[in-house]
Amino acid sequence: MGEFTLIDEIRRRCALSRGDVILGIGDDAALLAPPPGQLLAVSTDTLVAGVHFPEGTAPFDIGWKALAVNLSDLAAMGAEPAWATLALTLPQADALWLHGFCDGFAALAQPHALALVGGDTTRGPLSISVTVHGFVPSAQALRRDGARPGDRIYISGHPGEAGAGLTSHLAAALLRAPAQQDLDHLLARLNRPTPRVALGLALRGIATAAIDVSDGLRQDLGHIAARSGVAAVVRAAALPLSAPLSRVGDERQRLHWQLAGGDDYELCFTAPAAAAERIAALAAQLQLPLSEIGEIVAGERVRVLDANGIEVELARGGWEHFAA
Ligand code: ADP
Ligand code: MG
Question: Closest residue (by CA) to atom 7 of ligand 1?
């Protein structure tokens, strides 16, 4: 496949028509018509082989995850996804790989009515960079800086599953072997995360701050605390534990995955105590656990307390590129 056949394949498999795409793939730039009166939310995330996914990950999963991590950022802003561009760097033009990748990308783009409108294709070590564009009414964006003392802290889903999946995959010898069914579940959380787009949209006007958990709950909640100028207190016992996660590793490992595992793409958000009933109703409606795990207080940083109220120490805070 040459570069242009390759781009054509991508267009055929991933492009999707939307009324607000005046001109998509095929010209020097896409022409897009954002809805009047809304802000454009824009975010980019890159996946590099061996860093963001294990070497040998299925191309379908890479395509899915490259889009999922980006949609997760839009979800965390309360934005509605619309368009994406894709910068693809490939070691070779492998048709089978490309088809798998496009199928994974399209499988997630379609239910979100997200149109791929352009990109760039180059040769080099495998790396995928996606930029997503979404819409949000200006007063309703979910920012990191709105948490206030007295707000409750919530987390969606079951953070820790992706981290447990990664450890099971890379360092199975360190663990009591998980049952195949549990392993499949944990690896699916790692390789095909679900961006919480519907939750992000529903939290407009309810959440005071939000972030998606990509680098570990404690570290990402720390960004809310820092940007909001407040402290966060998390009760370790309140962290949700799924059945598959409860059966892998030991208690200390599980706590580490829950707080610092990363790659979960759940939403961590804050809301006034008075919103508890609306949030419970939302959890039922979306069929997604929304667990209250702590409280915002005056001060700074994140403290995680055990059942006796003693602060929990963690070996490492969370995922950070260029960390010593
Ligand atoms: P140019 O040389 O003018 O930058 P390209 O030859 O790189 O144009 O791209 C031709 C068209 O194909 C453009 O519309 C571009 O957005 C699109 N395109 C290129 N690579 C990709 C890709 N990986 N995914 C989606 N669209 C792509
Ligand atoms: Mg050009």
Answer: 120
